[in-house]
Amino acid sequence: MIPSLHRFLIVLCLLSALVFCAFTAHAGGTVPVYQSGKTRNTTRPLPRKPSLNRYQRNSLERLLSRSATPATSMRVIAIQVQFADSLMGGQPGSHRPELRDSTFFAGEAAHMSDYFDGASRKKFTLEPTVGGVLYTLSLGMGYYGRDIYEEERVVELAAELIALSDDGFDFSQYDHVFISHAGAGQ
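-> structure tokens emitted (186 positions)
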């Protein structure tokens, strides 16, 4: 018992001394090393530069070559989807009483458009269209959202939704597709 108490007191004294030295060095008018202009020799390696993926490299090259023209608008279509076992809010059998219909999503799209308008100082316009149909996928949310298959299943979800909604929309009229799905996000 005494040796462990002895070690504890030694550690406590050392920590107190370090705190006291740091406090008195700063309070006593000495200038910290980082403000004095002096440099310290450290052995820490420099941080590694992050690598860019192919898309990022191509975008950066276009930007640096000045051949890229910034987009001034983006046309997006927002499509609503629910799963066989997880319904969009407000639907009969849904666990959420709050209605999540086209009117709700149109309001959210208007807020998003206002955000881009303000953030870009009116140099970029988001042109959202909310599809008025709620589509139901053939499988449950757990199938599409299973983490270990995430990359494959999100493609399956998009492909099934586009196949279901292809007759209702001319996708060539839009730059991007937003998918608003029922249930919890990940």
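Strands lie at 73-82, 125-136, 176-181.
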